[in-house]
Amino acid sequence: MCGIAGWFHWQQTSVAQQSVLQQMTDTLRHRGTDDQGFFINHHVAFSHQRLAVIDPENGRQPMTVDYLGARYTIIYNGELYNTAELRRELKRSHVTFKTSCDTEVLLQAYVRWGKTCLDRLNGIFAFAIWDEYNEELFLARDRLGVKPLFYSEVGGQLLFASEIKALLAHPKIEPVVDLEGMADIFGLGPSRTPGSGIFKQIHELRAGHALTVSTQGVRVWRYWQVESREHTDSYEDTVSAVRDLVTDAIRRQLVSDVPVSTFLSGGLDSSAITAIAANYFNETSQGTLPTFSIDYEGNEHYFKTNHFQPNSDADFKSIVASQYATDHRDCFIGEKDLAHLLKEAVELRDQPGMADVDSSLLWFCRQVKKETTVS
């Protein structure tokens, strides 16, 4: 993942404010340690904390392209799963590309198609584009809200960032939790009300929504809504369609220029993902798929079957790892590590979360990161 932060100022911004932008960006270092970039002009300030996945050499951000005398600049956190299709379509419109990364494809898609580019995107994303021609900032978030994006209107400007902590690093934002925020923490935790940022001045750009800000003001709108329809397909057609969709979704997410692995718990979801990924690795001659599992130290001695969990996960993950000949690693976390990371897990979430689940996941991801970047 990457981290983005910045602001739009209705009056003026300047390079003298880069120290504030730096403070905001430094809070996002854990989202990517490969690079850090900045862009400031008379209306906007952008920063990007990068985890390089596609085209590490040429995909630096903020990224700018020129078209018909105007400049367009993007910062982006996410991945497009239909990059190849979009690139081909744009090339037919005589677009030339300087990189192989999806960032440039997304930016060129906006340059050619404007805000309607959102209708063509298959992926997970949160991005900001400065449209110099229209003097307008454009923010958008993916359909299901996989990638986070928060914003705040304060002091004659609109601030935005991938995480709440980056906004709290700005001197204009006070870390005040009001009654609504408290209700979210105690009534809905670890969830939040859609659109809520817990803190008084902070809002979340909701999933499937976009936002524009200019001298004309701020506009937020929904660009996508899930639709419920009667299911009329036969059982056989349904099985075939679900298989094709799941397989396609997983294979698209395996495109990477850095090492890829899967989490393997032995449950239905991770087993299916691992099976499809291992087959893809085999078909494309990418070698053996690395898989990782987490368990608690001593669990093999203390686990007892019950109606909720009649079998240990270890029984099934071993079967899957063996069946698909994966390069499997078991990671075991102790109680001290679990307890030690509880506070840091809350700080990374910017709110109380799922306690030991969060701290164990944080520890596990750090073990996996030692060997693979994408999982």
UniProtKB/TrEMBL annotation:
PROSITE patterns tied to this protein: GATASE_TYPE_2 (PS51278)
Domain Glutamine amidotransferase type-2: start-end pairs: 2-216
Enzyme Commission code: 6.3.5.4
Sorted UniProt keywords: Amino-acid biosynthesis, Asparagine biosynthesis, ATP-binding, Glutamine amidotransferase, Nucleotide-binding
Gene3D superfamilies the record matches: Glutamine Phosphoribosylpyrophosphate, subunit 1, domain 1, HUPs
Classification via SUPFAM superfamilies: Adenine nucleotide alpha hydrolases-like, N-terminal nucleophile aminohydrolases (Ntn hydrolases)
Superkingdom to which the source organism belongs: Bacteria
Top EC class for this record: ligase
Pathway where this protein functions: Amino-acid biosynthesis; L-asparagine biosynthesis; L-asparagine from L-aspartate (L-Gln route): step 1/1
Stored InterPro entries: Asn_synth_AEB, Asn_synthase, ASN_synthetase/amidase, AsnB_N, GATase_2_dom, Ntn_hydrolases_N, Rossmann-like_a/b/a_fold
UniProt entry tagged with the keyword Coiled coil: no
Reactions listed under catalytic activity: L-aspartate + L-glutamine + ATP + H2O = L-asparagine + L-glutamate + AMP + diphosphate + H(+)
Name of a matching Pfam family: GATase_7
PANTHER family: ASPARAGINE SYNTHETASE, ASPARAGINE SYNTHETASE (GLUTAMINE-HYDROLYZING)
Family: Belongs to the asparagine synthetase family.
Protein name from the UniProt record: asparagine synthase (glutamine-hydrolyzing)
Organism ancestry: Bacteria, Bacillati, Bacillota, Bacilli, Bacillales
